[in-house]
Amino acid sequence: MDIVVCIKQVPDTTEVKINPETNTLIREGVPTIINPFDENAVEEALRLKEKYGGKVTIITMGPPQAVEALKQCIAMGADEVFLVSDRAFAGSDTWATSYTLARTIQKIKKFDLILCGKQAIDGDTAQVGPGIAEWLNIPQVTFAVKVEVDGIKARVERLLEEVNEVAEVPLPCVLTVVKQINEPRVPSLKGMMRAKKAEIKTLSAQDIGADQTITGLKGSPTRVVKIFAPPAKGMGEMLSGSTDEAVSNLVSKLRERKII
Amino acid sequence: MDLRKEPNEAPNWKGIFVFAEQREGQIQNVAYELLSEAKKLAADLSCGVAAVLCGGEEIEKQAGSLFDYGADQVYLVAHPELKSYRTAPYTRALTELVNKYKPEIFLIGATTIGRDLAARLAIRVNCGLTADCTGLAIDPDKKILRQTRPAFGGNIMATIISPNHRPQMATVRPKVFRKSKVTSRKSEVIKFNPVIKEEDLMVNILQIVKDESVKVNLQEAEIIVSGGRGIGDPKNYKIIEELAQVLNGAVGASRATVDAGWISAHHQVGQTGKTVAPKLYIACGIAGKIQHLVGMQGSDTIVAINRDPDAPIFKVATYGIVGDCLEVVPALTRKIRELRA
Amino acid sequence: MLDYLLTEEQKMVRDLARKIAQEKILPVRAELDEKEEFPWEIMKIFAEADLCGLWIPEKYGGFGQSVLAFCLATEEISRACGGVGVTFAASALGGAPILLFGSDEQKQKYLPDLASGKKLAAFGLTEANAGSDAAGMETTARKEGDYYIINGTKQWITNGGEAETYTLITITDKNKGARGATAFILEKGMPGFTFGKKEKKMGIRCSATRELVFQDCKVHKSQILGREGMGFIVAMRTLDLTRPGIGAQAVGIAHGALNEAIKYSKERIQFGKPIIALQAIQHLLADMATQVEAARALVYSVARAIDAGSKDFTKDSSMAKLFASDTAMFVTTQAVQILGGYGYMREYPVEKMMRDAKITQIYEGTNQIQRNQIGLSLIKESASKE
Q1: ipTM score of complex
Q2: Which terminus of chain C, N or C, has fewer Cβ atoms within 10 Å?
Q3: Among the options C347, C364, C381, C386, which is catalytic?
Q4: Domain with B158 in it: what CATH number?
Q5: Which chain A residues are closer than 8 Å to B214 by Cβ?
Q6: What total number of domains does chain B contain?
Q7: Which CATH number describes the domain made up of C122-229?
Q8: Angle made by CA atoms C80, C84, C90, in degrees to the nearest 5
Q9: Can you give the residue range of the structural domain that contains B131?
């Protein structure tokens, strides 16, 4: 099986803060990581490869330092990696990003399956995976929590709000995965050595034959016009005393607020 | 890959569409919430609000309630292949509808259905899509939609616009807006017959696996009682369930307990679980790591119960009790039962 | 931490071990200790990460024979949990005799599985009546044609019962004194080889400690390591090689405790300020930190010397183990003291570290034996100078 996984290098958003005076992101000192959901996608690809044979290719669209994320994937066991990087891609929203990734996939690979993480923890949109599927005109199955492949079809269990749904989809297709699908493996030393020695190919807009009128900021239908700090949540009231006292106090306060 | 067409000419696009999500023939609350919000936006745009209802032939019977919440029109998109949601037939039908009736704004609930659908539809229709909006407003000068949403796990807020592309599409999570009935009710139903193609039917739904532990949809719940590792043992979820039951609420969980197998993933609240914003969120034995907070800090009132006075959860809690959950939670349940009695 | 001018590869080993320690060991260490549960899941992760073969040459599937790399990994692991650390290190202890004295065939047969982490090893020396006085051991191997019949009981064997590969020291000729012992390789499942119950210990509770029980266990002479009569030499040289590893375990435990003590004293407010502002605490932390760094420097130096091909490192090995383990006991005890009442509570990690640290002063040769060893080495060295 030829599996392509799209990953994104993101700041560890649990550390990202906004400067409330300038309303700009404070990026210094914030470590970059592979988007956690994408790590699950890479792990799932590796498991499918171990089970069914084939090759795992990782693609990322990003600035030059995204190479680090690709190296981590090599250390986990990926066979081939590509960085798609070009000034022409700067400022892409999910529309332009999904176009660029789809174009890359088309240009360089034949594939049976494309895996993406459910969403990136910086953008939190969950839009790129389905976008890629639409550009490539292949089916998508989102929120995958279990994947089995049977020749030309995949059986995918989806984690919905209250139930799980089992869908059958022909290959090739795009699957987006949730965290609950697996536990990503730790890289191996041999893998890390391989990653260290690896020469990573960078593809430019020209290399992938992208229509540059629809990449980057220019090609993005959406624009961010403002970013600001969320309203500060003031610390509330601590209710002290014995268990009975605190509980009585809480109940009366909740009643006052007409919550119960 | 088709070469994209030019963006749809903005001035020709008018009106607000709201996707009336239905599951098993039941229209979801988020649809009513979005209709109510759309009504406000429509006032600023001097335009109408239409609900788009897709389903099997019998879905027509459900259309009425949409007028109760402010729809001026209901587009009835009925087709046997649309009975239950699947990406391709729904995308096909809505693309045709949108291209024919040209709404300037299209609102969709950010549910598993809505997010799956909107992401695909936005590419096909060539428009901008903003996910998980927490605020919508019409720019008074440009008459365009200003969409505000959290990013970076909720650490920042961003306001986004789609200046040139139509429709301006946005998904909104359940319970972000409040539904409200209108006083004067319309009733125009417009039937739309989509052409569903063979290639739209490639994905089959084989089965639905129900989760017996899920009694209430977490994202619809008004009250959630959530348990974390501080409850000590999986069997102690019983006290969480009892409190939830007495409050008619849902049971939530931290990622740690789900990973440890104490409860199923459908209950997980947080960055890699569900985002909820109920009226009342009671966090029991939950430390309040940022990954959990991003999933529930939008709740109206947060009550935290934890043995550790330094637990970060207390920083976002409206009311905090430092104590052992195994004592405090049953005491709370008892007190509420007493009140009700 | 001082920059020890590690190579890229060594840093890789350290960073990988640290990642596993933080992501996989830290969250479960308290539970493993509480339940006395063998860390199989974590051992599997080490295997997948290629960490089990750091002390084994590439020829046998290892990552290259480096005592320093092994120490770096053991230290990182032990900083998270001393019990997991000793499980990791004891497998190397069990395999070291094969590395040092095995024939090429024996190495080919046993080392690859240890390198891949598929199997664990254990070292059987200690007995109820033969601890420091190893020569007093009573497990015998009686020659019968091409076989040896083994009878006796080994006590307190780390990884006993979980490991598949065992290196055992037995008495083959009581009359030959220092030349009367022989080392064998045994496998779990050999008839006549069973295990006693799992011991309940003060610390390193997730580590499995069991008796090895031999009742007419018949073993072919091809399982002998080296030659008949070399048993004590095998044991001594094995311990010389592996003592830095125990030193590394002790350094890891100590540093973990130091970190907890610093973290706590920054957060704990008494008399209007964090206790780290108090000179008494600063002095304690200073002593702890200095000793940890000194112990680390000694362990690394000895490891490097061994890797560089040093022939005689008995004394240095003993020094590293002695100093590091005494440091671990000192630092963990002080850490509990600094955390005060909280330090005594099981909810906080330092009491476990103190319980874990104690054994490092006892096993692989008690610190009294280490001092004997160092003393004897000093005598030998000064004699040769005359």
Answers
A1: 0.90
A2: C
A3: C364
A4: 3.40.50.620
A5: 162-163
A6: 2
A7: 2.40.110.10
A8: 135
A9: 10-201
